[in-house]
């Protein structure tokens, strides 16, 4: 076949047609058609660049803003499993999935602040069927139609964004909910989400199910009811959104630890995990799970000093050999990055320890507050009025101390016990080591100078 054959002509015609379409040419040609096509292309690109999304679409498109990363993260964390109990190990988990679980769990714990008679939380984690449920026997949600919104109250607060009972900042609340997202985020990132509640005040029970990331809703089922109040949320996380295929062992171990957290941080509440009561009756029991089998440099069991500082503060302190460590809760929220509540307590303790160390370390190296802090392990459980956080993930509490709504007062007895728990001895040992290191460095420097003085450099030969 020659170079000018029909096949070459066919490809040439196809290329011309494509180029003509791209340049806005029609069968009739003409500059007007080209200009119109260019304007259309420009308008289309602007529409692609500037888009308006519904809030639901935005949450699904940009989950990091609301629930944290939806990518797997490998990190060393404390977890709980039946084989090893509470322990620290490297795990891989998805922060976003952890967060949606926690939103529902903190909601359940919050109900204790609304109903002093509430005494039970039940958590079921079914990894085989990708199902999680959280139940509490506190005051149920009012099963009544909201007059302004023309829908049942449970429908409104679980299925519509920016609805909450926590928007009145003038009310002094010590709950974890704050911004009106809460359990709705769990609904949005679930393939199935069911709410059941009952209210003896209204003598009705309620059940409703959402599906496909809160985009589909069943009709609510409302019945007459004469039993005890409760609320139960059951959901199946949309695993595709979290790049997961199942609720794996690491994830279940992390979620299980939160059951222990809530048992410790929610006073007067029994917590059940998969039908078994969590063996934590109070915050002190919980702290001992972390310190169990931990020994100091001399081989002795690490001492824990605990104090109940009133209805809103519990503090425990122990020696740390891994730098400063903290385990803290604000209104049952695990503040894994700490915050001003942790700084407040740690600073009070350090201030007292400095006085003791000054007496024991006369003439030694100067010891600074952060160097003392590096030898401390602090545990804090507190209730704070209308807490503020630096993100929706609520890992770091940023409310100023003056707005806490209560004071954490540490007794002289507590401070005296902290002085004897091993922290002072550990800091002193470090100070002596540092002083010796400085002395050795100084001696080596003098020795080098003497050597240089005794053996002057040989002059260069010319």
UniProtKB/TrEMBL annotation:
Lineage: superkingdom: Eukaryota
Catalytic activity: ATP-dependent breakage, passage and rejoining of double-stranded DNA
EC assignment: 5.6.2.2
CC cofactor: Mg(2+)
Domain (Histidine kinase/HSP90-like ATPase): residue spans on this chain: 96-194
SUPFAM superfamilies, sorted: ATPase domain of HSP90 chaperone/DNA topoisomerase II/histidine kinase, Ribosomal protein S5 domain 2-like
InterPro entries registered for this protein in UniProt: DNA_Topoisomerase_II, HATPase_C_sf, HATPase_dom, Ribosomal_Su5_D2-typ_SF, Ribsml_uS5_D2-typ_fold_subgr, Topo_IIA, Topo_IIA_bsu_dom2
GO BP term (any one): resolution of meiotic recombination intermediates
Gene Ontology terms: cellular component: nucleus
Pfam families with a match to the protein in the record: DNA_gyraseB (PF00204), HATPase_c (PF02518)
GO molecular function: ATP binding; DNA binding; DNA topoisomerase type II (double strand cut, ATP-hydrolyzing) activity
Alphabetized UniProt keyword annotations: ATP-binding, DNA-binding, Isomerase, Nucleotide-binding, Topoisomerase
Domain DNA topoisomerase type IIA subunit B: 282-442
Subunit structure: Homodimer.
Family stated for the protein in its record: Belongs to the type II topoisomerase family.
Function text: Control of topological states of DNA by transient breakage and subsequent rejoining of DNA strands. Topoisomerase II makes double-strand breaks.
Protein name: DNA topoisomerase 2
Species annotation: Amphibalanus amphitrite
Gene designation per UniProt: TOP2B
């Amino acid at each position: 076949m020659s170079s000018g054959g029909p096949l070459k002509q066919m490809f040439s015609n196809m290329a011309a047609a494509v180029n003509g379409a791209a340049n806005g040419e029609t069968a009739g040609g003409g500059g007007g058609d080209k200009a119109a096509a260019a304007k259309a292309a420009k308008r289309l690109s602007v529409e692609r660049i500037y888009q308006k999304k519904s809030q639901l679409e935005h949450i699904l498109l940009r989950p990091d803003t609301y629930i944290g990363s939806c990518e797997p993260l490998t990190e060393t964390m404390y977890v709980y499993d039946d084989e090893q109990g509470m322990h620290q190990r490297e795990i891989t988990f998805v922060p976003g999935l952890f967060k949606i679980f926690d939103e529902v769990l903190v909601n359940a714990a919050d109900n204790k602040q609304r109903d002093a008679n509430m005494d039970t939380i039940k958590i079921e984690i079914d990894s085989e069927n990708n199902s999680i449920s959280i139940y509490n026997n506190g005051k149920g949600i009012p099963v009544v139609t909201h007059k302004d919104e023309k829908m049942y109250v449970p429908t409104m607060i679980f299925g519509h964004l920016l609805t909450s009972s926590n928007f009145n900042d003038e009310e002094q609340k010590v709950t974890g909910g704050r911004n009106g997202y809460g359990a709705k985020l769990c609904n949005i990132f679930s393939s199935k989400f069911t709410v059941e509640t009952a209210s003896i005040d209204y003598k009705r029970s309620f059940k409703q199910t959402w599906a496909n990331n809160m985009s589909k809703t069943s009709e609510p089922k409302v019945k007459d009811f004469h039993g005890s109040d409760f609320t139960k949320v059951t959901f199946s996380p949309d695993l595709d959104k979290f790049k997961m295929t199942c609720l794996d062992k690491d994830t279940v171990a992390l979620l299980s630890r939160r059951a222990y957290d809530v048992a410790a941080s929610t006073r007067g509440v029994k917590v059940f995990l998969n039908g078994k009561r969590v063996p934590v009756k109070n915050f002190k029991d919980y702290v001992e799970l972390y310190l169990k089998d931990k020994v100091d440099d001399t081989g002795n069991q690490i001492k824990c000093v605990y104090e109940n500082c009133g209805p809103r503060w519990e503090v425990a302190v122990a020696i740390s050999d891994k730098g400063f460590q903290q385990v803290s809760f604000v209104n049952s929220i695990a503040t894994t990055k700490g915050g001003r509540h942790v700084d407040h307590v740690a600073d009070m303790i350090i201030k007292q320890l400095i006085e003791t160390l000054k007496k024991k370390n006369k003439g030694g190296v100067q010891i600074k507050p952060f160097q003392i802090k590096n030898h401390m392990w602090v545990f804090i459980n507190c209730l704070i009025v209308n807490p503020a956080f630096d993100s929706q993930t609520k890992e770091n509490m940023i409310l100023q101390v003056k707005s806490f709504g209560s004071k954490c007062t540490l007794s002289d007895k507590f401070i005296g016990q902290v002085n004897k728990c091993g922290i002072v001895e550990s800091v002193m040992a470090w100070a002596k080591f540092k002083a010796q290191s400085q002395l050795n460095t100084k001696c080596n420097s003098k020795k080098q100078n003497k050597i240089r003085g005794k053996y002057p450099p040989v002059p260069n030969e010319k």
